[in-house]
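Mods, move this if it's the wrong board.
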Amino acid sequence: MDNSIQMLSERASMIASHNTWIDGLAIEQLLATANLPNMVKVVGMPDLHPGKDHPIGAAYLSTKLFYPALIGSDIGCGMGFWQTEIAVSKLSIDKLERRIGNIDQPITQGEYSLGTIGGGNHFAELQKVSKIYDEPLFNHYALSQKQLFLLVHTGSRGLGHAILQNHIARFNNQGLAEGSIEAENYLAKHDSALEFAKLNRQTVAERLFANLHTAGREIINQHHNFLERIEVDGQACWLHRKGASPANRGLIVVPGSRGDFSYLVKPIEHTALLSSLAHGAGRKWRRADCRAKLENRYNIGEMQRTKLGSRVICADRDLIFEEAPQAYKSIDTVIESMQQANLVQVIAQLTPVLTYKTQGGI
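Not the wrong board. Structure tokens:
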């Protein structure tokens, strides 16, 4: 077994190179989750970091029971990726910043904030290709280094939150027995949330394209918080992904922080590692600690610029510190871990140009 794949217990493993920092609490949560009733296997990704009760950046396999709490409240959260018609050669960040507008408010009332990004680590980001690692694959997918790309990270907004809160009110964090009325009800709501999340990413992209006077071709629109029924050695199982991208559904973008690169990769599926990949860089600092660590060192103006020359639109004073690049791991160590485990073919490196968080209308 590759030395970047670490066995933590009989049922728990983790993908991490020697250069990958993993919070000890996240490992404790991963091991605790591995001991839940009917849990068969858990795999932590190199972006593993602590969550409220269970870690984020992991995949979980169970039988006969599944656990809505492992998917969390943002059912269907994921990444959408579009090639725009904005030419890199005519790039003007000033013009893009003026035109991008405000999409904090939903397009219609009463639809769980459809067409909005939300808070936390969600964003929309214009990116340029800064390096091509696999030109044949890059060309195979008809990608162009001459155009900007749009990456949208968001999910099911209020809908997913309502579904989980309803479950917790009735069952706390307990699992649901497959085939039960309660399980079937949850699965129906879960699948609706997946459809909503995918539509939400598309709607966010369309709103931004309209503001920026451009169009886009969809390359990816994929969840990384979802539940699916699979078969393993002829046995029905439930695969939970919480901050874990699927390795069997086409291309994936693995984003860094707003001040770091993102990488377009072609996954290499390993069923022993639950056919999953890291979904991003993963947090290094807890949100509550960020402002205290940074506020005396940087002003808001400095936080709205990055070392890569990109700009950040974020009118929420707390959020701009909580989502600072310093709060995240290096994306390169995450990619390195997956390469060592033979999980990805890296196609291209992407550099942020303009990151949209909020104009202050949440």
